[in-house]
Amino acid sequence: MRKIFIKLFALIALTLGSLTLSAQAATSEFPDVGPDYWSYDAIMYFKDKNVLVGYPDGYYRPDQKVTRAEFATIVTKALGLRDLSAIKFTQYKDIDENHWAYYDVMLSSYYNLVHGTPDGMFYPNNNITRLEIIMIIMKALSIKEITEEEAIQQLSVYKDAGDVPYWATLTTGKAQQLGLIVLLPGKEDYILPHQYATRGELAVWLYGMLQRAAIQPSKDIEPEPPKGPRKAEGYIIKNVIFDDHYAIIPAGTELPLGIMDCWFTRTAKEGTPILTRALTNFVSEDETLLIPVGSEFTGVIDKVGVGRTMIKNSEIVYRTENLIDSNTRQAVAPFKAVGRLTPQVREFTHNPYLQKIGFKGFKGHNYYTHKSQQAKFILLEEVKIDLEDDLHIVQ
Which of 194, 250, 260, 288 could form a disulfide with 275 if both were Cys (CB 3.0 to 4.6 A apart)? Predict the structure, then answer.
């Protein structure tokens, strides 16, 4: 009888385990990457395009490190570089046609995305660092150069800027200027150039690269970018008005922008200058590119409300004023919008109902905004964009 109970218990446990896995599969393509994972959207985007795949057991393993061969394969797939017929093959001593990633390494080498060492080695099994990824994704782009002083200024916001090698300062500074450095949760003040990249952050690096490459592709990859209105994927803005070669974003349109500084409601001051950034492309419903990822806007803190117990919660109201040129850092067009951030429900009990009651009833919550935190901005004035003049905002 005891054996029967043991078998019955095992059968029930197995059944419940199967149901749990089925429930996970229903909410996420990978059991170990749920919708609350910080890079979930980017991972799912590239999974749908068959650029990123899981392991035979169905897991994605977001904390696993990435090898140079793996990244060469993924970056060529993401950029759509699949034609071997016209390329010249590079000779490496440590990789040949028997290696699983050989052809992708050949493609990425031909298109000047990756390089070997002076002694002819590629080291396909070495883990790739965050700095190496920065150097590779920037090679996929056609960008204007910046000075060493400008690069150092761009990187000065990070506590470990001194860890970036001298030879990589200009490229890393330009990546920061374009908003292409992926910041890890809880470590937003660090570049971590020599830290090995993981599969979890990989998708975010690639997504930023693709969005910028749609605007400024490297001549090695696309010698003649198409003229006229450009197409891209990104945040869809509805009710865009088209007038000849102009696009008009109406006043009242909601745009999510990233706040590029950390603020605390108890110490933030009204009138303090701020910088905001488009963290994704803004496109119309037919995927016409309107405002490219990395576009930056200056403004000020318009209002600060400190949380007071039993009376009110805190808030910070941000106001943007101008679009700035990414190279000169000068204002080039007005961009009037207002965004607001208020505290989120914080956990002080495991009961979600008591948690919400306590949050709304006791009030007085103050909070920090972290770097690149998104806020919803509302346009106060319409924005007119010349689609044939490098997406120049004319009004």
Answer: 260
